[in-house]
Amino acid sequence: MRLSAAAIPALCSAAVVLSLAGTTPVLAQPFDGQRDAQPESATLAIVGGLLIDGHEGAPLPGGIVLVDGDRIVAAGSRETLAVPDGAEVIDATGMTIMPGLIDVHVHLDILGHSDYQHWHGSHRPNYPAIMEVSARQLLMSGVTTAVDLAGNPDALIATKERVESGAIPGPRIVASMGWITHWTDEEVQRHHRRTHTVNVRTVEEARAAARTAIAQGAGILKVHTGLTEAQLRAIAAEADRNGLRVTGHVGDRDDLLMRIRSGQDGIEHLSLSAGDSPIIHPDVIQGLLDRRTWVVPTMIQTLAQGLTAEWPDRRDNPRARALTPPDLWADIRSSIENPRRFGYFGGGLRVSRFRALRAKLRQLRDAGVRVLVGTDAGTPLNFHTDATWQEMDLMVRFGFEPMEVLVTATRRNAEYLGLGDEIGSLTPGKRADVIVVDGNPLLSMRDLRNVVAVVRDGRVYKRPGPGAR
Questions:
Q1: Residue 271 above 80 pLDDT?
Q2: C-beta contacts of 11-19 below 8 A and 24+ residues apart
Q3: Confidence of residue 35 (pLDDT cuts 50, 70, 90)
Q4: Higher pLDDT residue, 36 or 382?
Q5: What single-letter DSSP state applies at residue 377?
Q6: What residue segments make up the domains of the chain, in order of their start?
């Protein structure tokens, strides 16, 4: 059964009502947390918005975040903090101030095109230029840290260097430097990311592949299908030795359980049971809990084609179009003319698929499994400009509290990456990754479409303007 166009609003509205029925919206309340001391100097002050600091406490009305160089030096309210002389001021009055978003699964080398063979065949020589577009789209949408899983190492190294030097705007990039798999030679040659794939045959080759990725600057390792338990244990040991996580795809239930016990820290995509079944096997839930394994559902990747088939105007995403060079946009737009024909997602938006995703996510949450925010952004119709807020919106619809989702997309994602001491909350001493949202995501996660100011490492990349509202 497929959802009709008329059925989608009703189903989505019902999901929102169901989620709100058990949720008390977190509104502005008196601030009862510890107040930061007044700093003597600051280079930047973000003033006047509802302050959500990433620590799950009550939001603070009339908030102020003070930044000196690349670090936060204070966060509080206009009642307790003053703006030091000489600081640049961003007026966030009537809006929301919060930590920059972190997306733990993106693909910088793709921009929503539906034909991978065409895209990679045509644009492989231009990967750095493509990644520059993706990086700008993510940053301008409020994503200040992004995890690239499976990009071309040479292009990623060049892009990271340009972002870190300030030559191009972009999020902080954590990259896997390709992926490690165990396929036949034919499978490797057939895959569109064959130049990104390190194919191994032995345990020693698996260990060497992990060491190579780490030497290239990987901040996380990604594994794909076909690996043996011994190979995976070797990869996990190298990652653990260097303080890194291992994440990746899984196969059937036996493969998933093997990966959990072998040290794979993260499971990408919510394919924890076959087909559209809404049930995750109890053995899987127990394994995830026992090993404290993270799950990155990437639900918007699964639903993107079906949503577009029922709402064709979604193809003309104004935010993606505005931040994509015209020639690239023409190529992308042509490829997504008929969303129903895509084989990537296995069909349109079916009621069974929607309900299965919702049931699985609730099962994970109710069991206490650690769920993160990642989107597979860049995959067909899954634009970098919108993937993160759409994933977060789905989490709220499927039963998560809004504050829980915001904290997951900031502080908890940072902790997963081993960056919790540096980013993820508006805490003095941490890097100044701050966004201003025209709206209140605690009341509607869709307000995250309206990111009007972006600060990363203390540098202002986007400011509120006359058209911000």
A1: no
A2: 11/351, 11/354, 12/397, 15/358, 15/397, 15/398, 16/396, 16/397, 18/399, 19/396, 19/397, 19/398, 19/399, 19/400
A3: low
A4: 382
A5: B
A6: 44-100+424-462, 101-416
pLDDT of 24 higher than 70: no
Residue 143 reports pLDDT greater than 60: yes
Asked whether 274 and 255 are in contact (CB, 8 A), the reply is no
The pair of three-digit structure tokens given for residue 32, joined into one six-digit string: 């009862």
Higher-pLDDT residue of 343, 149? 149
CA distances from 74 to 29, 77, 281, 406, 455 (A): 20, 10, 46, 21, 15
Rounded-to-integer distance, Cα 176 and Cα 235, Å? 13
Rounded Cα–Cα distance for residues 438 and 92 (Å): 8
Per-residue pLDDT, 18:
34
- pLDDT given at position 279: 86
Residue 387: helix, strand or coil by DSSP?
A: helix
The answer to whether 200 and 164 have CB atoms below 8 angstroms apart is no
Which of 3.30.390.30, 3.20.20.140, 3.20.20.370, 3.40.50.880 would CATH assign to domain 101-416?
A: 3.20.20.140
Tell me how far apart the alpha carbons of residues 331 and 341 are, in angstroms, rounded to a whole number.
17
Q: Which secondary structure element, helix H or strand E, spans residue 354, and what is its range?
A: helix 351-367
CA-wise closest residue to 257 among 282, 221, 231: 282
Is residue 450 within 8 Å of residue 467, measured between CB atoms? no
Show the beta-strand stretches assigned E in 80-190: 88-91, 96-99, 101-106, 143-148, 172-175, 179-181
User: Fold identical between 44-100+424-462 and 101-416?
Assistant: no
44-100+424-462 CATH fold:
Urease, subunit C; domain 1 (2.30.40)
Q: What are the φ/ψ torsions at residue 6 (nearest 5 degrees)?
A: -70, -25
Q: What is the pLDDT of residues 56-92, one digit of tens each?
A: 999 999 999 999 999 999 999 999 999 999 999 999 9
Distance between alpha carbon 348 and the CA centroid of its chain, in Å?
Answer: 23
How far is it, in rounded angstroms, from Cα 324 to Cα 306? 23
CA 467 from centre of chain: 26
Helix, strand, or coil (residue 456): strand
Q: Please give the mean pLDDT across all residues of the chain.
A: 89
Structure tokens at 59: 């939001």
Q: Give 201-249 as a DSSP string.
A: -SHHHHHHHHHHHHHTT-SSEEE-TT--HHHHHHHHHHHHHTT--EEE-
pLDDT in tens, 119-138: 998 999 999 999 999 999 99
